[in-house]
Amino acid sequence: MAIATPFAWPTLLESPLYIAGIVLHGVLFVAGFLIPWDRFSPRSYLVIPLLDLLAIGLSRNGATPLLAGLTTLAIFPIIWLSASGMLSRTSMVLSIAGPLLIMIPSLWGRFPNLTPSETTTFALFPLMTLAVCLAIRFASVNMRTQQRQLQKKDEELIRLLASSREREKLLATVLDATDVAIAAVDRSGHYLVANSRQRIFRRATGAADSTPGKGHQLIFGQDRQTLLPPEKRPISRAIAGESFADYLVWAGEEPSQRAFSTAARPLISEDGHLTGAVVVYSDVTGWVEALAANEELISNVSHEFKTPLNSILGNVDLVLEDIASLSPLSAQRLEVVQRNSERLLALVSDLTFSASSALKVYPKQTDLASLVATSIGSARAQADQSAISFVADVPSPLWAYADPLRIGQALDNLVSNAIKYSPEGGVVSISAQGTADWIQLRVKDTGMGMSPEDSARVFKRFFRTESARDAAITGAGLGLSITKTIIERHGGDISCESRPGEGTTFTLTLPAEGPPPSF
Fold first, then answer.
1. Which of 136, 141, 424, 518 has CB atoms 3.0–4.6 Å from 82's, for a disulfide?
2. Where in 49-180 does DSSP place strands (E)?
3. How many angstroms separate the most distant Cα atoms in the chain?
């Protein structure tokens, strides 16, 4: 306005009020820059819009009637006062009073002879500025409410972020404190979480890539020489959706090669989709080496026992062939020697068998019904001595893909145990059922039974329940361990269900058919 006045309205330069208004506008403009408002009260800067109303009034009344429309400039200080959130009542009063005070001086002498246009402007413009003030006031209140809500959300997010970081640190500390390697990966195979021991495992395998399960890695099978293909590595199996436990692999090369027992569980989202997996690696090198040394010791001791035992049995058999020349007492004592030597030789054979890590099975289509009948026939004499009766419910024929010699040995172990642990007059039941893929055999007795804790340990080598020891029932605790090995070598499974005083049920699961032929 100051720049345009000399050119557009030169007559206004002779109006003191107009010049005073322009000067006051300039002073307020400069004051906005030069005065350090932050040092004063938060409301101190409101003097600018208040004085701005005065400057607009001076300019408008000094320029009337040439620039009567300058009254509309009052909208700017009113917006400022309304949006400030301060002096709310004062701003509403000024939104009406300000325009009126600006317009009244120039219209005072003309009342009541105002034109319709002037009357309309005098009546409606203050109402319009009041409406603008109220609208801005409501918008400001709503905006400040939203700002407070956003501030609360920001504070909550900051707290959640701090809590999340604390939990992340706690998780990292817990994971690093464990003595196993842990890795969590997403569906594409990228690491989500990995502790320090897992990074040690990666270094041992020579993995240089950032995506687990890919690239060249020194991960070997149980023979410690054959590199596992990528799809057989623990993480690759895990992100494919497999769930497994006790999967033994060897990492690295000799002489620093280590054995790891691995386990994996899938990560499932709420909608049931696979999102990743968690893989755990336990260093079992010491345990595997100790087990191998133990098996070697048992194998060597068993081998050394067999030679003298066979010699003893051979000589006793030769003497007993001429039993007529022996006194009854000598013959009786030699028969005791023979019986116990045979028992000891059977025990040594079991020890040798249980120590063997290279048990071979030769499965073929086998009728399990005939094996059950043979097992019952072999155990009939033992059962008759204890008045044990048999109940067999096995369809014939019942075909399974199994090694008849080994499965017959497993059945003999289970039936013999059922007879030994059943009271006089008990019943041993053998039943079977099958599907297109699997055959299940159940051997059930009415004996003393076992606790759940003993049932979980019954397949361990040399394990015998306390009740069996108290009852002086003969055995070395190897039969069930051998049976489990036989069944697992067939790709099957064996389980035990028992309750004290209610008998025991062993369930064998065997494949019904063999693998498809290869051409």
1. 136
2. none
3. 164
CB-based burial, 2-25: b 16+ in 10 Å, e otherwise:
eeebeeeeeebeebebbbebbebb
With 0-12 / 13-18 / 19 or more C-beta atoms within 10 angstroms meaning exposed / middle / buried, residue 121 is buried
The structure's pTM equals: 0.42
Q: Which residues contact 512 (CB under 8 A, 6 or more apart)?
A: 399, 400, 401, 434, 435, 436, 437, 438, 439
- Among residues 218, 228, 235, the alpha carbon closest in space to that of 182 is found at 235
Task: Please count the other Cβ atoms lying within 10 Å of the Cβ belonging to residue 192.
Answer: 13
% of the chain beyond a pLDDT of 70: 84
Mean per-residue pLDDT for 327-348? 76
What are 349-377's pLDDT values in tens digits?
666 665 555 466 788 888 888 888 888 88
**Beta carbons of 490 and 511 less than 8 angstroms apart:** yes
How far is residue 2's CA from residue 71's CA, in Å, rounded to a whole number?
17
> Dihedral of CA 446/449/452/457: which sign?
negative
CB 23 within 8 A of CB 43: no
- Average pLDDT of the residues in 373-393: 83
Three-state DSSP state, 334: helix
Q: Phi-psi region for residue 224, left (φ > 0), alpha (ψ -120 to 50) or beta?
A: left
353 touches 359 (CB < 8 A)? yes
Least confident residue range of 93-102, 263-272, 441-450 = 93-102
pLDDT (tens digit, 9 = 90+) per residue, 144-167? 888 889 999 999 999 999 888 888
pLDDT for 471 beyond 60: no
Q: How far apart are CA 234 and CA 211, in angstroms?
A: 13
Q: 377: which 2 tokens? A: 């026939």
Poorest-confidence range of 214-218, 318-322, 323-327, 494-498?
Answer: 214-218
Contact between 379 and 416 under an 8 Å Cβ cutoff? The reply is yes
Distance of CA 309 to the CA centre of its chain: 56
Secondary structure letter of residue 493 according to DSSP: E
pLDDT for residue 156: 92
What crossing angle do the helices spanning 116-177 and 88-107 adopt, rounded to 10°?
160
Query: 352, 302 in Cβ contact below 8 A?
Result: yes
35-76 pLDDT per residue, tens: 888 888 877 888 888 888 888 888 888 887 778 778 888 888
Give the Cα separation of 93 and 74 in Å (integer): 13
First to last CA, the chain: 100
Strand partners, 227: 220
Does the pLDDT of residue 29 top 80, yes or no? yes
Burial bucket for residue 243 (CB in 10 Å: 0-12, 13-18, 19+): exposed
What CA–CA distance (Å, rounded) separates 26 from 18? 13
